[in-house]
Structure to design on (405 residues):
């Protein structure tokens, strides 16, 4: 990524404001002194009118040979600088694109009420969400945009703290709390105390998986990844806690037990989980307790389900800004699997039969039915499998409203 600029009518006043060195600044990599970058971003954060009149900054994606940002209708340079900051923080690119889309949409709301989204109060945020729904967005999408805005306000707070510490109070965390509180209250209005209580959203996404992998060690994040990809860990099934190093070969995981099957990871996920296998023998458990207080015999025992799902996995909550449950992660992985199946078949707008076929495959991959089982449509209408199939059909439809497939 490079940061570039368009320059219009450079006046002496403007040149003096930012210094002549900036005129030759075309990319972050070429910046010779850190103070040059500080000058640029300080002016953006101060929303200096002279700066905004004379300069328009862009982010150029060198890999795709295209401009990343759009021309936002409200506080264009600030939003562009914030996007660039997010890129520098190595936030997954797909998440940055979601940030861009959300800021582009909220810009129209900002312009109509002449107020920056970082200054929205609870009524403004709820009004924004309701306007989105009235314009055709689903409730899930509207709530997700609130969630993304809350993350952007947090990034803006950190951005200001790095480049303009003396004005950090302008981007106070109070705004973050307002967004999170609104997410919770608005969700409760729409769903009662079920799907989205505590500020949660109904799904975790592949972006969330990448975020966890980027920011948490494998001993914590790999649990999240494996649940998302279909391994079971509950009172009756211990596929994660009993997983051994020898069960993992490249991007394939062999599951033994009552639902023997092979689960496939993406390449980056396989490398991430593989970190836990380095230096271990094939008979070692992937998740081990290395506490010095334990005896060697105790270290050879599999971890308890509670230790995996509560003690370790709960450490991802502060990264995602929500508290995903085991069931939410697993169901999210299932619908993501279904969506990918249909996408591979070039059938994203699939008919009912194609969706059922994809659900059938997901049930085998996720250990809901045996690999050699009859087709899910052959199960009686009042059976648990038939009920779950109907539930998953509805869940997939909601997922396509919430996430672009």
């Amino acid at each position: 990524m490079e940061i570039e600029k368009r320059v219009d009518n450079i006046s002496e006043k403007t040149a003096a404001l930012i210094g002549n060195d900036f005129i030759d600044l075309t990319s972050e990599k070429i910046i010779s002194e850190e103070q040059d970058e500080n000058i640029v971003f300080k002016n953006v954060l101060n929303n200096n009118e002279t700066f905004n009149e004379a300069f328009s900054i862009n982010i150029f994606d060198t890999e795709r040979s295209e401009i990343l940002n759009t021309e936002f209708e409200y506080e264009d340079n600030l939003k562009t600088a914030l996007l660039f900051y997010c890129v520098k923080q190595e936030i997954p690119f797909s998440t940055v694109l979601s940030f861009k889309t959300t800021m582009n949409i909220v810009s129209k709301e900002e312009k109509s009420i002449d107020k920056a989204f970082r200054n929205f109060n609870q009524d403004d945020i709820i009004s924004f969400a309701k306007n989105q729904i009235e314009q055709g967005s689903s409730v899930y999408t509207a709530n997700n945009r609130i969630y993304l805005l809350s993350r952007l306000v947090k990034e803006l707070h950190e951005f200001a703290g790095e480049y303009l510490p003396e004005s950090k109070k302008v981007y106070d965390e109070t705004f973050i709390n307002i967004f999170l509180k609104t997410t919770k209250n608005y969700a409760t209005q729409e769903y009662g105390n079920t799907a989205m209580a505590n500020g949660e959203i109904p799904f975790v996404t592949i972006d969330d998986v990448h975020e966890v992998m980027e920011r948490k060690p494998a001993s914590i994040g790999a649990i999240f990844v494996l649940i998302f990809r279909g391994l079971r860990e509950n009172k009756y099934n211990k596929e994660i806690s009993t997983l051994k190093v020898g069960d993992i070969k490249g991007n394939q995981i062999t599951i033994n037990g009552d639902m023997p099957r092979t689960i496939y990871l993406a390449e980056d996920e396989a490398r991430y989980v593989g970190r836990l296998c380095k230096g271990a023998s094939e008979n070692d458990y992937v998740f081990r307790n290395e506490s010095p207080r334990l005896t060697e015999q105790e270290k050879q025992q599999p971890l308890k389900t509670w230790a995996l799902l509560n003690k370790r996995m709960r450490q991802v909550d502060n990264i995602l800004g929500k508290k995903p449950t085991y069931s939410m992660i697993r169901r999210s992985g299932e619908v993501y699997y279904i969506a990918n199946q249909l996408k591979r078949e070039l059938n994203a707008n699939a008919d009912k039969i194609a969706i059922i076929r994809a659900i059938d495959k997901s049930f085998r991959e996720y250990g809901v039915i045996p690999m050699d089982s009859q087709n899910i449509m052959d199960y009686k209408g009042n059976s648990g499998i038939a009920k779950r199939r109907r539930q998953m059909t509805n869940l997939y439809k909601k997922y396509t409203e919430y996430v672009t497939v």
User: Anything to note?
Assistant: Confidence is low (pLDDT under 50) at residues 2-35, 187-200. The chain has three domains: 2-199, 206-320, 327-402. DSSP finds 17 helices and six strands in the chain.
